[in-house]
Design a protein that fits this description.
Helix content is 33%, strand content 27%. With 380 residues, it is of the alpha+beta class.
């Protein structure tokens, strides 16, 4: 009996050691690619390897292409419902493609979907020409956006990622671009698709399969962008979310496709094992009420305009409390969405860790002079 107990104890000890090492092992032991990085959705870098070295990134270039497309949609320059006429330049693009037809018309949303799912070069060029009139103008926009994001080692010469001696980026910049891209909800509507048919105007169909295998094979992965050329080698930027915790991982220059998926998965595992996000208030959630003078309602509910969360190490979690700073003397009328205060996450020393605006959840009309008199009389 004692012998069996000792064996069980030894097995338990071994299992505990394995689990502990899986949680605390260094991410550097999991990355053989030229560059590697894992980042929180808030921009916290959890691990990096050569993350600012200039290197070709192949089709991960399309992260910036998509970001510029979504920016143009948000700014009202184009719409997902736009009809896009395909030029010969676009239809003649090589590499990954959906075989667009010259002079045919496609919905902009379908072209975006083909870029996200199967990295279609022809769709990238068609989108660029539709939005900016030419690929060259669009690439200028890509570089302007890179400057606005303060990217440290990035320059674009095309919108596809096909090899060019003057086109380069780095793991840190790729993660920064991708962090901006995933702020657009429509991106995830496309990025989760595993297989789908692309319909051409004359009835022809091109099958699309997601190049990011992790959306199917890694628990929580819901988006990403692959890349490969002989110069760039195998690349991948992907994101995964478990509970309230979302992270972004990048590898640049892996030796083969299997390695890039395995090493991004390892970086995800490292992040989820060692870090977590605690959300105190969700975007749109009513946080508090505010007194309103001369309004048909005497008070108005206020909600935060973004998630108020704290990303922390599991080993060194800090406590925090929500404190509200409200505008005083607020007088109707008020419009829904008006900013009327701030919700702050503060630590035990009163230091502000994160902030979100408090906005009116609905409008409040101003009461008339006689309605105000009646209210005063009724209240004595």
């Amino acid at each position: 009996m004692k012998k069996y107990f000792l064996i069980l104890f030894a097995l338990a000890l071994c299992l505990a050691t394995v689990l502990r090492s899986a949680t605390t092992c260094k991410a550097s032991e999991m990355v053989t690619a030229k560059e590697g990085l894992v980042m929180s959705e808030f921009g916290d870098v959890l691990y990096q390897k050569n993350a600012t070295e200039k290197r070709p990134i192949a089709s991960m270039t399309k992260i910036m292409t998509l970001l510029c497309v979504y920016d143009a949609i948000e700014n009202g320059k184009v719409s997902l419902d736009d009809n896009v006429v395909v030029s010969k330049r676009a239809s003649d693009m090589g590499g990954s493609q959906v075989f667009l037809e010259t002079n045919a018309t496609y919905k902009l949303e379908n072209l975006v979907k083909s870029v996200v799912i199967c990295s279609a070069n022809d769709s990238c060029v068609a989108l660029a020409e539709h939005i900016c009139g030419s690929v060259e103008n669009f690439v200028d926009q890509m570089n302007q956006t890179a400057n606005k994001l303060n990217l440290v080692a990035t320059h674009f010469e095309n919108c596809t990622g096909l090899p060019h001696i003057s086109q380069f980026s780095c793991a840190l910049d790729v993660a920064t671009m991708f962090r901006q891209l995933i702020k657009y909800p429509h991106y995830f509507k496309c990025a989760n698709i595993w297989m789908e048919d692309f319909q051409h105007p004359q009835g022809r169909v091109t099958g699309m399969t997601n190049t990011n295998k992790l959306v199917r094979f890694y628990d929580g992965c819901d988006g990403g962008k692959t890349g490969y050329t002989s110069e760039a080698m195998h690349c991948l930027c992907a994101t995964a979310k478990r509970g309230d915790t979302r992270v972004i991982a990048v590898v640049v220059g892996a030796e083969d496709s299997k390695t890039r998926f395995a090493e991004v998965s390892a970086l995800f595992n490292y992040a989820f094992a060692n870090y977590h996000t605690k959300c105190y208030l969700k975007a749109g959630e009513v946080a508090t009420n505010l007194q309103v003078s001369y309004g048909k309602q005497k008070e108005i509910p206020l909600a935060v305009d973004k998630d108020l969360c704290l990303f922390q190490s599991k080993q060194h979690s800090a406590s925090a409390n929500v404190r509200y700073v409200l505008q005083s003397g607020v007088v109707a009328p008020i419009k829904a969405g008006d900013v009327l205060g701030t919700a702050n996450l503060v630590d035990d020393n009163g230091k502000v860790l994160e902030s979100a605006n408090l906005v009116a959840t609905k409008g409040v009309e101003r009461i008339s002079y006689w309605e105000n008199v009646k209210r005063i009389v009724a209240n004595g």
